[in-house]
Amino acid sequence: MAGRQIYNPDGFKNTQTDGTITGYEFQFKAQYYRGFTLSILRDIQVNMDGEDVPREDVRITVNGSTFTLEEARTVIDPELRWEFGEFATISVVKEGGLKPGKHHICAKQIIAPSYMPFVTEAVCEADFEI
Questions:
Q1: High-pLDDT (> 90) share of the chain, %
Q2: How far apart are CA 117 and CA 60, in angstroms?
Q3: Can you count the helices (H) and strands (E) in the chain?
Q4: d(CA 48, CA 45)
Q5: Sign of CA dihedral 54, 128, 27, 35
Q6: What is the CB neighbour count within 10 angstroms for residue 78?
């Protein structure tokens, strides 16, 4: 488990559309020391309770705008930066969401800064309850 607060403890919840639970969301902080435009975000890998989430089911919301991970790679708007220390909301499409009770999340942020010859990865784990 990370030594500092990566996840917002109040940010874990199921999401609804027209009264039906359609998934869940969580909030966590950018782990890159400079913050970044979404165009360098390569992936957010989510494993919930030991089950990998398909990439196409993950969305990111920054400054009120929501994108699939593929869409995020095209975002260069400086108003849509994920700043260091700020929470982004990560939504997962999953019929029925998460059952009430205890859960374990492991999420990995993968970015590719243009001035580095490699990608950086930050793994963040936490236990929480819905």
A1: 69
A2: 25
A3: 1, 11
A4: 10
A5: negative
A6: 6
The band of 50, judged by pLDDT with boundaries at 50, 70 and 90, is: very high
- pLDDT over 50 at 45, yes or no: yes
- Give me the amino acid identity at 15: T
Q: Quote the CA–CA distance of 102 and 110 in Å, as a whole number.
A: 26
Output the average pLDDT for the chain.
90
CA distance readout (Å), 93 to 57, 58, 98, 101 = 5, 7, 11, 19
Q: H/E element holding 69?
A: helix 69-72
Place of tokens 């994920």: 82
Is 13 buried (19+), middle (13-18) or exposed (0-12) by CB count in 10 A? middle
Q: In what order do the strands lie in the sheet with 13-17?
A: 13-17, 20-29, 87-93, 58-62, 65-68
